[in-house]
Amino acid sequence: MRSPTLHDVARTAGVSYSTADRVLNGRGGVAEKSVLRVQHAIHELGYIRDIHAANLSRRRSYRFHFFLPRGEHGFFSVLRETLLGEAAGRATDRFLVTCRDVPAFDAERLAAELNRLEPGECDCAAVVGADSPALTAAIARLAALRIPVVTLVSDTASDARSLYVGIDNRVAGRTAGRLMRMAHRGRTGRVLLVLGTMGVRDHRERLEGAREVMGAPEAGLDLLPPIEVQDQPDTMRERLGEALRSDGAISGVYSIGAGNRALIDLVGTLPGPRPFAILHELTPYSRAALEKGLIDAVIDQKPAEEIARALDAMRALADGQAPPATEIVPTIYLKDNLPGAGRAAEKAS
To answer: How far apart are the first and last CA of the chain?
Structure first.
């Protein structure tokens, strides 16, 4: 059974299509009795307005601004490329998407960029969250200007932003902890946790989740103090290298953030058995490392799905509608279940 149309509403109300359209869009100039008849027909027929079709007919464009970290971070490069590809694919739906680079972990700079936005300049903004009073104030300012803000990857300003799109980072940390416990089953071990910074919520939540599982007495794991590397490969190389050289008993490494090219290089040059290694995000580097057996598992938050859900949610917010579900369920990649791994194995055999 087809859904009722505005033509059906007009016919049931005994008015012209243009009159029904004026009532639906609140443009005025319609007699009160006709307004009541149209409203009654809408209720009687169960008519639901097609916001998307209405916007296309009015040639409305959606203006969305993304603010993404730049730097030597493979995941955000993938996220940016995914955004540009998805935006190009939605151009026929009149999506006008801009992507602005901001320094990683620089909440003050991000806040300054958001404060440049003027009323009516965009329909929704998306940012990667960080903890900062200035950023919270900037997001609250946009909310007051009726510019909704969506947070990606890492949440922030929960009382001011409209919604968060991404994985449950505490659950992701617990998942990494469970994998590490499985790798050590039947033996004790020493595990080193590496994060970018405690100044972003996603890293803190992953750390907390991992500690909950690996720090349990029955796990038999000795958790070393975490080291911060600011997601910089050079800092990762220096601090992780020093830790591995000074403690030959390290049997596991969980890298919570980025800078993992250096980690991969380091474990590839260790003289003895390498630690069990878990990373985040499937990038060209982490995929190659899995294929070569230099790391063991990657927890990926599926950037293509993340961007698609963010754009769907941003359109709903711009239209004043309830957004769809925005939680991403991450994928655990091992060497054997990488995309295309089955076809490669068939060719090799």
So the answer is: 52
Candidate CATH numbers 1.20.1250.20, 1.10.260.40, 3.40.50.1820, 1.10.645.10; the one for domain 6-49 = 1.10.260.40
d(CA 15, CA 93): 31
**Interior CA angle at 162 toward 161 and 167, to 5°?**
90
Please give the Cα distance from 17 to 271 (Å, whole number): 79
Q: CATH number of 169-300: 1.10.150.20, 3.40.630.30, 3.30.230.10, 3.40.50.2300? A: 3.40.50.2300
In the Cβ-directed half-sphere of 50, how many Cα atoms lie within 13 Å? 10
CA distance 79 to 328: 14
**Residue spans per domain, the chain:** 6-49, 62-166+303-328, 169-300
pLDDT at position 101 over 90: yes
CA-to-CA separations, 285 to 84, 280, 293, 296, in angstroms, rounded: 21, 11, 12, 13
pLDDT in tens, 298-311: 999 999 999 999 99
Provide CATH code, domain 62-166+303-328. 3.40.50.2300
Q: Which of 72-86, 187-201, 237-251, 275-289 has the lowest mean pLDDT?
A: 72-86
Say which residues have a Cβ less than 8 Å from residue 341's Cβ, sequence separation at least 6: 335
pLDDT tens for each residue of 167-196: 999 999 999 999 999 999 979 999 999 999
- Count of helix runs (H) and strand runs (E) in the chain: 14, 12
Whether the CB-CB separation of 191 and 254 falls below 8 Å is answered with yes
Read off the pLDDT band of 36 (50, 70, 90).
Answer: confident
Which has more pLDDT, 349 or 147? 147
Taking residues 215-244, what's their average pLDDT?
A: 95
**Cβ 225 vs Cβ 251: under 8 Å:** no
Are domains 6-49 and 62-166+303-328 of this chain identical in fold? Answer: no
